[in-house]
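Title: Comparing notes on inverse folding

I've been comparing how different people in this forum approach sequence design from structure. To keep things fair, I'm posting one structure and asking everyone to reply with a full sequence. Here's the target:
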């Protein structure tokens, strides 16, 4: 399905956007550091909107109040006149590491720098290029996952992958260890189409079976209130004992449903230095790390762990150690 035709009054816009090829867009995206890109309509499908609304109605967003902002269903409310969406993929996979009783493991994406800063810098440069290339201004608005957008739905429309049963995008080459960013633009590209990729999960339910807290209540359905990542990153409330007791060793985030996915089995590690543990807090947090952070909390600045803060990390690690109940190490299978 191609993008909707434009009225005659916007013929100039159409001519300028047609002059830009997908190859140019991809070349610029890769040059700025993204790993893949797709283009689709700036429109969320009725099916995806209904799935989102049903999820809210069931209360599966828990205390994530920001998820209730339904502007995410209507791109034109974010950028009036939006016609196309350009979706960018950043691959971040890090080494799969064992759990230890004396230190908490940090999820793969959070061991280095905060990707939001990385995305903002790239988006600013891409939009600048797009404006210079078309000799127009105010034609695009960038977003990362901190903006209310159903970005995974747009990524699927753009042909970048499909929804996995763990609710994550499964990229055709990179699996699930990806982060999405993008922009809406008033430009209407001649190659802007909807490329729906059929799910390739088949009868596999490894992610559902692997989740220690049973947060994946059914295929494609996540109850945030049961999700370990929700409690170790987002929630400001005490971690429920039934959740803490099932934590195998994380202090921030969780990768279990991703590690279980066969589409991640053969993917290489990311080469992007921004995600390297050497450029962040590292792979684990132990008593010495917490002592250092308490004395110098600025070490968290510019990392994903800043969202939790020193006190939050200390609480999570103390809770984890209490529920470990053993001095022996537990290795991830």
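Reply #1:
Here's my take.
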């Amino acid at each position: 399905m191609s993008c909707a035709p434009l009225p005659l009054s916007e013929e100039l816009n159409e001519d300028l956007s047609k002059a830009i090829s997908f190859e140019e867009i991809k070349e610029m995206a890769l040059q700025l550091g993204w790993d893949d890109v797709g283009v689709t309509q700036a429109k969320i499908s009725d099916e995806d909107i209904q799935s989102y609304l049903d999820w809210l109605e069931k209360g599966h967003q828990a205390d994530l109040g920001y998820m209730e902002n339904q502007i995410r269903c209507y791109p034109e409310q974010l950028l009036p006149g939006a016609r196309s969406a350009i979706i960018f993929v950043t691959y971040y996979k890090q080494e799969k590491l064992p759990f230890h009783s004396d230190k908490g493991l940090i999820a793969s994406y959070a061991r280095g720098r905060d990707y939001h800063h990385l995305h903002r810098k790239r988006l600013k440069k891409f939009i600048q290029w797009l404006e210079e290339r078309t000799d127009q201004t105010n034609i695009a608005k960038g977003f990362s996952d901190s903006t209310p957008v159903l970005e995974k739905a747009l990524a699927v429309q753009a042909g970048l992958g499909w929804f996995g049963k763990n609710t994550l995008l499964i990229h055709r080459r990179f699996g699930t260890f990806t982060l999405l960013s993008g922009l809406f633009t008033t430009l209407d590209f001649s190659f802007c189409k909807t490329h729906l990729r059929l799910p390739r999960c088949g009868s596999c339910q490894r992610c559902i079976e692997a989740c220690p807290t049973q947060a994946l209540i059914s295929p494609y359905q996540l109850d945030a209130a049961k999700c370990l990542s929700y409690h170790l990153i987002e929630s400001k409330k005490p971690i429920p004992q039934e959740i803490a007791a099932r934590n195998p060793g994380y202090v921030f985030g969780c990768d279990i449903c991703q590690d279980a996915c066969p589409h991640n089995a053969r993917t290489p590690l990311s080469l992007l230095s921004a995600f390297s543990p050497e450029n962040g807090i590292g792979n684990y947090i132990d008593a010495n790390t917490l002592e250092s952070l308490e004395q110098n909390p600025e070490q968290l600045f510019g990392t994903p762990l800043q969202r939790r803060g020193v006190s939050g990390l200390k609480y999570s690690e103390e809770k984890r150690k209490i529920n470990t109940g053993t001095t022996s190490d537990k290795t991830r299978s």
